[in-house]
Amino acid sequence: MKPDTHPDYHTITVVMTDGTTFTTRSCYGKEGDTLYLDVDPKSHPAWTGGAQRIVDTGGQVAKFRKKFQGLGLGKL
Fold first, then answer.
1. Cα separations (Å) of 38 from 5, 19, 62?
2. If we measure between CA atoms, which residue out of 15, 12, 14 comes closest to residue 32?
3. Which of 5, 29, 57, 75 is the Cys-Cys partner for 33 at CB 3.0 to 4.6 Å?
4. Over the stretch 9-60, which tens digit does the pLDDT of each residue have?
5. Cα separation of 15 and 24, whole Å?
6. Cα–Cα dist 16/71, whole Å
7. 8 to each of 11, 29, 45, 47, 51, how far by Cα in Å?
8. How many Å apart are CA 16 and CA 34, to the nearest integer?
9. Strands 10-15 and 21-26, bridge-based pairing
10. What strands, in cross-sheet order, belong to the sheet with 10-15?
């Protein structure tokens, strides 16, 4: 490798939103720096699933239930 062309790759500490920490290697900051996350897999809805709900726009759910109520698939 050419000298002085690559970033410094060193150890940092990452602090998750719930306070847990882990050590990893990164180009972020300097050796021993701490990276505090605002969003992580424990708090972001993309990973946690978020609060999902069915929004019945224009009675579509009721229309579906009426159409398929006689199939014997249990409670729709």
1. 31, 11, 40
2. 12
3. 29
4. 999 999 998 899 999 999 999 999 999 988 887 777 676 666 556 666 677 8
5. 11
6. 49
7. 10, 9, 33, 31, 41
8. 11
9. antiparallel
10. 21-26, 10-15, 34-36
CA–CA distance, 41 with 18 (Å, rounded to integer)? 11
- Give the whole-angstrom CA distance, residue 31 versus residue 25: 9
Q: Which residues contact 22 (CB under 8 A, 6 or more apart)?
A: 13, 14, 16
CA atoms of 23 and 16, how far apart (whole Å): 11
DSSP category for residue 21: E
CB atoms within 10 A of CB 53: 6
Q: Which tokens is 43 given? A: 């708090």
Amino acid at 47: W
Q: List, in sequence order, the alpha helices (H) in the chain.
A: 45-48, 60-68
